[in-house]
Amino acid sequence: METNINKVLSQRGKIYGKYEDGVECRAQIMGALKQLYKKCNREDMPESMSVMFSDITLKMMRAVTAPEHIDSWIDLAGYAKLIKETMCKRYDSNS
Questions:
Q1: Which pairs from 45-53 meet CB under 8 Å and 24+ separation?
Q2: How far apart are alpha carbons 29 and 38 in whole angstroms?
Q3: Contact 65, 57 (CB under 8 A)
Q4: Are 81 and 52 a contacting pair, CB within 8 Å?
Q5: Where are the domains of the chain?
Q6: Cβ burial, residue 81 (10 Å; 0-12/13-18/19+)
Q7: Which of 1, 13, 32, 36 is a good FRET partner for 47, with 20 to 30 A between their CA atoms?
């Protein structure tokens, strides 16, 4: 099992780059998004929304590092659809 994990991690690293670099980039993007949210909404970004933006950020970064890897674009579209549906339910139920 450990061999399989290492093989997958090696393959992903060749496609998407170093994990540490991705984490740092995502942290910077998320920090900027949270700061803007607070400025515009005068409150901290809810944790669930932060997770949603983090998912989208990860998929955008993967698409940037390997634009020819179509699965990243499909994943990005899929997450956007799920988030839209979640947000619509949330705001429809608050009406």
A1: 52/79, 52/83, 52/86
A2: 14
A3: no
A4: no
A5: 13-93
A6: exposed
A7: 13
pLDDT score at 63: 94
Q: Mention every residue, 6+ apart, whose C-beta is less than 8 A from residue 79.
A: 52, 55, 56, 59
Helix, strand, coil % over all residues of the chain, rounded to 5: 85, 0, 15
Reported as half-sphere exposure (CB side, CA atoms, 13 A), residue 24 has a value of 5
Average pLDDT of the residues of the chain: 93
What number is the average pLDDT over the span 70-79? 95
Per-residue model confidence (pLDDT) at position 76 = 96
pLDDT in tens, 23-37: 999 999 999 999 999
The residue type at 61 = M
